[in-house]
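new request in #modeling-help
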Amino acid sequence: MSKASIKWKIISIEISEENQIIPIDFKLANDIVKCNGVYLSVREFINTPQNSIPQIGELSLMFNAKSRHPLHFTAAYSKELSDKKETLKLNCDIEANTNIAGFYIDYAQMKNEARIFQPYTLSIYLQCYSKEKNPTK
Amino acid sequence: MSEIKYQLVKIKVEESGSIIKFTADTDKKFKSIKGVFASLPDTEIALLGTTLELRIADNEIFPEEFEIKMLSCGQNVAPNDRFYTQIDEEAQGSRIEGRYTDGGNARIYPYVAKLYFLHNQRI
């Protein structure tokens, strides 16, 4: 008997230059069977003139040896952290031994009041499910 | 409706960048852990870059580099809705093991971070 359990996988991307394009190639563990959702998070506090920036870059993710392309979406930044963090739904079944591929393009929006670009780290949280053999649960 | 209990775990953070390992035992009289919520006594900015690696009953709940801001929200969110509830782990005295890494953004050190664990199903 087995039960699926949530496993968070985090892909962190360091953006050091404006308009940078960063390829993504990430190996998922073999026991991952589904990617249920994604959440994008900027790790640092960036002192932008605006409280929030709706589009700081765009992210494209392909699963299952590029046979599935469930996500092409923009990332946002906000100084406000008060909302509850909910993932964007993906509901993508994962084939064993396949990589996640894709890219992130920075939009050169992360600038301080002097309009100088501020490097940042984008964390891509993948809410995955794994199959675990644990009949006691 | 099954009985609920909230267990508070306090983590004292002495200085910027501190890494604190902690353990706690879940309540023996409750069957399961169903949620967790984190709060810091500082501005929201203090959450930035701070991470929490967590295991319950020897199962990974959050991996290394998991940001604690994912487990927190503001006073505008109703108390019952603040919890991360995608946990279903055995309580009954099982071990909670964590590693808290401060992100260096708190205004004042030391401070005490708090984790609230939602138990349910009293035995």
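bot summary: The beta strands of chain A are 3-15, 21-27, 32-42, 52-63, 68-78, 88-93, 99-106, 120-132.
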